[in-house]
Amino acid sequence: MDIKNNVTKIFKNFSHKKYLKIEGGKFLKGNIEISGAKNSALVLMAASILSKGEINLFNVPQISDVSIMSKLLITMGINIKSNANQLTINTKEIIIPPQDLFFDLCNALRVSFFCIGPILARFGKAKIPLPGGCSIGSRPIDEHIDSLKKLGVIFQYRNNYVIAKVINPQKRLLGSSINFKCKSVGATETLLMAASLAKGKTILNNAAEEPEIVDLANMLNLMGARIKGAGSECITIEGVESLKGCDYTVIPDRIEAGTFLLAAAITRSTISLFPCEPNHLKALINKLELCGCKFEYSNFCLKIIPNQILNSVDITTGPFPDFPTDLQAPFMALMATTNGISKIKETVFENRMHHVKELNHMGAKITVKNNIAKVIGVKKLQGREVTGSDLRATAALAIAGLSANGKTIVKGLEHLERGYENFSEKFQEIGASILKK
Ligand code: UD1
Questions:
Q1: What are the sequence ranges of the domains in the chain?
Q2: Tens digits of per-residue pLDDT, 170-223?
Q3: Residue 248 Cβ < 6 Å to ligand 1
Q4: Catalytic residue check, 134
Q5: Which of ligand 1's atoms lies nearest the C-alpha of 43?
Q6: Any ligand 1 atom below 6 A from CB of 42
Q7: What's domain 13-35+252-436's architecture?
Q8: Domain 38-249 is in which class?
Q9: What residue ranges are annotated as transmembrane (predicted)?
């Protein structure tokens, strides 16, 4: 099989368009269909490595991160078929990938590092490139490494690669008790996957509680794993000998849903989202209610009804169930247009305020000190040419453009396409003037 050829042919390429052109000031109206969660889909794809059976994943978003992850699995000899939002992943055969290609793909996607858990669990050894730099901060991997060491793995670092090996002669990970120093989504997921095939029991203390972790545990349990407590800070995993294939549907993307709620609020528009799980969005909904938005919910359909005048409120980001860092930038765009002064404190990542300069270029009044932004609301933002520096910052600038006077050009579409399926098309359907150019 010519892997390089396969990788370039199978999945569509993104980012052939360069920017968004938005005419602001339009009211939005109608229903939005929420896609499957990016952060779930990516880790469920990594988890498929654990089984020799076939995994059918439904509701997978067609975004460039999923495309890169698919290519990465294909370089490992894994057979993947895609049909709209369904992926069929057959992991019976796995090979050592061509290193140059593997290196480039891993560098393009931090979550690729999360494959280390399932590769170690299945093969007893792994060689994975260190995750590349990221514009929102240093994003260390010490929690992944330290906790895998407790399961019996030794590590070496060579030429930007992590080389890991299970030390016991049976090459099987051994269950252990782990106390994470900080709540990390990725480290919790790495350990859930690794410990599922370990010998004996693993206890994860101070585990992250995000809905995507519950989603992963649910799929692993369907594959035959024995995991209890996912969604709380203590998770117990009884290791099993092997895992089988399964059919699984990815949960709705709470960050995409949150972005649309904020777009509705910033344009003072009433829209409905389906399917939507409000329990995944409690922190955002509470804050939007304090601003002056009302909500109606039934049968997985969430409707937002904002007042025409919204008030400023403060937020502090944190691990779930606290306010998600992934919605900090879009929330700041809203606060730039509300009545009063808002304090926005970022505690998860040390360098996630790049959007401030661009929002100020649109007429916002924001100053930042020690990762706390002080946002003085203005009556109207002004359409300008701005550039998104990461996925969520680009989304924030786009929703700012939807509410601004005149034309906004948002560059950085390649970031947006990493995580939002049909972003501009969905907004067009509810009345926005937004074009990909
Ligand atoms: C995941 C999400 C990302 C989200 C983030 C926080 C995926 C694919 N991505 O990223 O969208 O913004 O959670 O909700 O699910 N940390 C360490 N050592 C480690 C690992 C993490 O100190 O080994 C720190 C990080 O620097 C950060 C905090 O823990 O300050 C949270 O990071 P983490 O939850 O690990 O983020 P990711 O899993 O990378």
A1: 13-35+252-436, 38-249
A2: 999 999 999 999 999 999 999 999 999 999 999 999 999 999 999 999 999 999
A3: no
A4: yes
A5: 8
A6: yes
A7: Alpha-beta prism (3.65)
A8: alpha beta
A9: none
